Amino acid sequence: MNRTVVRRISSVNSKFFHIALVECRDFKGTRLNITAPSDSPNTDGIHIERSSNVYFSRSHIATGDDCVSIGQGNSQITITSIKCGPGHGISVGSLGRYPNEKDVNGLVVKDCKISGTTNGIRIKTWANSPGLSAATNMTFENIIMNNVTNPIIIDQSYCPFSSCISNVPSKVELSEIYFKNIRGTSSSLVAVQLHCSRGMPCKKVYLENVHLDLSSSDGGRKQSSNRGNEAVSSSCRNVSMMELESETQELHLHVNGEPEGKFSTEERSHKYSWRLRVSLYVTLLLAGETIATLLGRLYYEKGGKSTWLETLVQLVGFPLTLPCYYYLKPEPSKTKTITKKTTSSFLTLSLVYIGLGLLVAGHCILYSFGLLYLPVSTFSLISASQLAFNAVFSYFLNSQKITPFILNSLVLLTISSTLLVIQHEPESPSSTSKSAAKSKYVIGYICAVGSSAGYSLVLSLTDYAFEKILKKYTFKAILDMATYPSMVATCVVVVGLFGSGGWKKLSTEMEEFQLGKSSYILINIGSTISWQACLIGSVGLIIEVSSLFSNVISTLCLPVVPVLAVVFFRDEMSGIKLIAMFLAIWGFVSYGYQHYVNDRKPEEDQELPQSKEEEEQKQVDTIHVQA
C-alpha cells in the first residue's frame, strides 16, 4: 500500500498480528485501539516490515505480544504517543533470522507510555544469523516506564526454543542507538541490559537522562531502608567503555535510589534551567539583531559605502567566543556514566563547517547590499519573508509539515513583500536619476529576499547538521557552530575585500565619515558584538528548540525595527507600508501559533483524550476477529 491513512479503528482478539505492514510506503495510522488477552501468543499489535515513511500515533495497544514490532528492511519509521501494555513492549526485531535481510535505518519512538509489560524498549537479533545486516540510527526518547520488567534491553543472542547455535555470535551490526529522557519504574533489579554480539559489538549506543527505580508490589516506587527509592542496576556486554573527555557526550544512567522529593526537585530544576537558557538565547537574538540592523543603517546613512566592510562586521566577531572554551572543562560526575565518542570524522565536520560558512558569507553579502539600497523599515519588512523560506526548507530538510496556519503565514508574507516592491516611487526630479533610484531599489529588494532565503537555508541546514551529523547538544557544540562557519565566511569576505580593492578606500571613508573617526570605529565594533550575540542566540535556540522557533523569534524584530527607523532615520511610513507591516505581523502570529500548537501536542497526545462522539465511533468501527 502507498499513501494510506488509517484512523479511529479498533481491532479485538486477533489470532495473529492485528496490523501487518509489508512493503508499504507513506502510511499513517492514528487513534487506533488494539486489544488481545495478555496471555495470547503472536498477537502483535502492529508489525512493520520492508516499509518506509510509516507514522503511527495517538493509539492504545494492549496484547499478548509486542505492541509494535519493527522487522527487517524498514526505514524512516516514527512511533509517537502510544500507550502500550500489557504485552511485550516495543521491539526492533527479531533481526538476522534469514539470509539477505535488509537493513533497518531511521527509527524514532517518542512520547510513549509503557505499563505492565515484559519488556519496554527491546532490540533483539538472532544468534548464528546466516547473513550480514545492520540496524542503525534509532532514537527512543521521552518514554515513561511503569512497572516494566526489562525497561531497556539489547539482546543479540536471541535463540528461542534452542533453535539455533546460541554460542555463535550474531552478524547484525547495531549502531547509533539513542535512549533519551526515559524514566519510571522497573519490576526487576536489572533495568538496563546491553548484551551485544561478541562478533559485532554495538557501536555508538548512548543513554542520556535515564531515571529508573525499582517498583513495589503495587507498581509504585519501592522504598529502601534509608527512605530512598530502591536501586536498580545495569548489565553490559560487548559495549566499549571510554573515559569521559571534553569532546564526548556525557550519558547518565540513574542506578542509585534517591528520595522521591529530590527526584521531583531535579525535574523542576531541569525545567527551569531550560527556560532560563531559552530566555537568554531569545534576549541575545532579539537585542543583537535589532541593534546590529540599526547600526548598519547608521553606517550607510552617515557616509559609509563599503558593503564588504558591512559584511565583515557580521562575521568577524567569532574570536569573542573563544574565552568561553576555557570554562568547558568537564566536571567529575557522581553518576555512573556510559560514554562514547560522538564526534563525527574530521573530514565530515570540515565539510559541514565549510559548506555552512560559504552559505553564511553569501547571505551576509546579500544582506549588506539590501541594507544599502533600501530604507531600514522596508528592509526589515521584506526580511519577514524568511519565515516563508524557512517553512519550505524545513519541509524538505527537517520534516516540517505545511499546516493551514503555516500556509496562511506564507500567503500573508508573500503579499506583504509584493506590496513593498510595487509601492516604491522615487522622488528624484530627473527621469535619469529616478530610473537609477528605482533600479537600486529593485536590486535592494532582490538582495533582501535572497538574504532571507539564505538565512533560512542556513538555519535549516544547521538544524539538520545537529540532528544527523553532530548529534551533540551541548554549549560547546553551540560555540563550535558559531565559530567555525564564521571563520570560513570571514576568510571569504576578507578575500573579497582585498581582491576588489575596497580596503584602499577605508581610510578615506573613515576620514569623511559624518560622525567622526571615533564614531566610525565604535559603530563597527558595536555591529560586530551585536551580530555575534545574535549568532549565539540563534544557534542556541536551534539546539534548545528548533530552527523554526529560532526564525520566529528573529522575526519578532519585525514591529520594532521599522518603528525605530522612523524615529532615528526619519523613514517614511506610508499607508502601503503600514498595510505590509500589518500583514507581516499577522503572518508572524499565524506562524507562532502553529509552533504553540506543536508544543502543546505532545502533552495532548500523551493523554490521548477522546470525546464521547469518538468513543461511540470507536465502537462502530471496531473489528471483531473471533478466536
From TrEMBL:
Gene3D superfamilies per record: Single-stranded right-handed beta-helix, Pectin lyase-like (2.160.20.10)
Keywords of this entry: Glycosidase, Hydrolase, Membrane, Transmembrane, Transmembrane helix, Transport
Listed GO CC annotations: membrane
Coiled coil: none
Composition bias type Basic and acidic residues, residue spans: 610-621
Subcellular location(s) per record: Membrane
Endoplasmic reticulum as UniProt keyword: no
GO molecular function: polygalacturonase activity; purine nucleobase transmembrane transporter activity; purine nucleoside transmembrane transporter activity
Membrane-crossing residue ranges in chain numbering: 278-300, 312-328, 349-373, 379-398, 405-422, 442-466, 478-499, 519-541, 548-569, 575-593
Start and end residues of each stretch annotated as Disordered: 215-235, 602-627
Family classification: Belongs to the purine permeases (TC 2.A.7.14) family. Belongs to the glycosyl hydrolase 28 family.
Protein name: (thale cress) hypothetical protein
Species: Arabidopsis thaliana
Source lineage: Eukaryota, Viridiplantae, Streptophyta, Embryophyta, Tracheophyta
